[in-house]
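Section 5: illustrative case.
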């Protein structure tokens, strides 16, 4: 059994790494517009509420006094959902903060439209974001095969996961697969939720204290949160980033990308195929594998209990 478990763990690591850095989760075979959501969250006992966003159902939880002066939005990371914050949401609520936890599009009980469907394409945060406007400072490279409006930055100084610096000769800011499951889409979802749910229901927007929302985000949620703040800075006070996503597998970060990136791309192509989905479904039913993956973000192994694994 040890070789089997080792193989599963290796496959899981490949899944985790490949999916983390070029974000495109394997979609269901058909678009899901409506799904059965239980009345209560099994992990928190809180009511599962639904935010209708651009024709999609977004599940969220809320706790704490409605009239609180300060509000917090909890944003989860890869492979988890709002129940990831099962302890945090109640602790912050009891401390006097109006606290929300949201399922990002494609996660948890939120809608998961197939990435190549018309409704998913209409959700894509890339759409319209990179049109030519005087305020944009991107350097355009007309000699490439990309569309003229694609924002290509050249010779960009980037920080690395190890704390160093690298120069990206060319940096395309769009999602490489034209998928709606990207940081721009999630950022727009977060900003709209902040405006439509947090401000309107607490009354913060009406009384002028609309910068009272704070983000607490984990993993890929940190990048989505930072993008949301960049897009709509007037909505937010702060971002608490927990274990942020570093894109070590992005081509500007990889050593010898001409050799390594084709291998990475091949693995990712497999994971996005029908066989990749079957592999993912098989691996993620293994509690042993899930617990080992959770040891990466969790400092306290005791927190990785059966309730967390189930959620």
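Designed sequence:
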């Amino acid at each position: 059994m040890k070789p089997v478990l080792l193989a599963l763990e290796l496959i899981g690591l490949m899944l985790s790494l490949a999916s983390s850095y070029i974000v495109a989760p394997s979609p269901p075979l058909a678009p899901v517009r409506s799904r059965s959501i239980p009345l209560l969250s099994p992990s928190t006992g809180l009511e599962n509420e639904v935010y209708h966003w651009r024709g999609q159902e977004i599940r969220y939880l809320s706790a704490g006094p409605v009239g609180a002066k300060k509000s917090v939005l909890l944003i989860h990371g890869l492979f988890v959902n709002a129940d990831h914050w099962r302890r945090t949401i109640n602790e912050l609520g009891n401390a006097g903060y109006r606290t929300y936890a949201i399922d990002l599009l494609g996660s948890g009980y939120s809608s998961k439209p197939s990435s190549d469907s018309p409704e998913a394409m209409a959700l894509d945060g890339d759409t319209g974001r990179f049109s030519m406007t005087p305020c944009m400072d991107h350097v355009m490279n007309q000699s490439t095969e990309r569309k003229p409006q694609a924002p290509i930055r050249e010779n960009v100084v980037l920080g690395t996961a190890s704390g160093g610096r690298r120069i990206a000769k060319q940096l395309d800011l769009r999602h490489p697969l034209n998928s709606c499951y990207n940081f721009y889409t999630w950022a727009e979802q977060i900003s709209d939720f902040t405006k439509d749910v947090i401000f309107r229901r607490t009354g913060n927007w009406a009384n002028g204290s609309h910068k009272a929302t704070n983000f607490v985000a984990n993993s890929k949620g940190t990048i989505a949160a930072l993008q949301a703040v960049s897009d709509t800075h007037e909505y937010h006070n702060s971002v608490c980033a927990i274990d942020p996503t570093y894109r070590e597998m992005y081509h500007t970060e990889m050593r010898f990308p001409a050799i390594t990136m084709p291998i990475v791309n091949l693995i990712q192509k497999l994971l996005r195929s029908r066989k990749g989905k079957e592999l993912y479904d098989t691996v993620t039913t293994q509690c042993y594998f899930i617990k080992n993956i959770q040891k990466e973000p969790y400092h306290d192994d005791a927190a990785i209990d059966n309730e967390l694994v189930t959620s």
